[in-house]
From TrEMBL:
Pfam families: TMEM_230_134. It comes from Erpetoichthys calabaricus. This is Transmembrane protein 230. It comes from the Eukaryota. The chain crosses the membrane at residues 45-73, 79-97. It is found in: Cytoplasmic vesicle, Autophagosome; Cytoplasmic vesicle, Secretory vesicle, Synaptic vesicle; Early endosome; Golgi apparatus, trans-Golgi network. The keyword Transmembrane helix applies. Keywords: Cytoplasmic vesicle, Endosome, Golgi apparatus, Membrane, Synapse, Transmembrane, Transmembrane helix. Belongs to the TMEM134/TMEM230 family. It is a multi-pass membrane protein. GO terms for biological process: synaptic vesicle transport. Involved in trafficking and recycling of synaptic vesicles. InterPro entries: TMEM230, TMEM_230/134.
Amino acid sequence: MMPTRSSVSAGIPSSKVKYSKLSDNDDGYIDLQFKKSPPKVPYKAIALAAVLFLIGSLLIIIGALLLTGYIHVSSPDRTFPVLIIGILVFLPGFYHLRIAYYASKGYRGYSYEDIPDFDD
């Protein structure tokens, strides 16, 4: 036996239900679906960029000290790889920290969406 309409809606009092009339020019869209949600800050990616920036800065400083002779090295062939690795680690860290800084300040053209997120 099929339940009747009155028995299905008997649990909801009619005074609690609110109806609104649809507009005549309804195209199937509502304004809420075009609102942009607040930006999600990728904290893990920013922390990784800060670590890369610090390690790269440290390696560049050590490489520069090795190159100038403040730190004595038995074989000077080891100075250039330290500098190269330092530069390769420094650049992505600096780049992503710069994007995060400008996005936090609200500069036009910068957003947190430009930083790769690891929470996927």
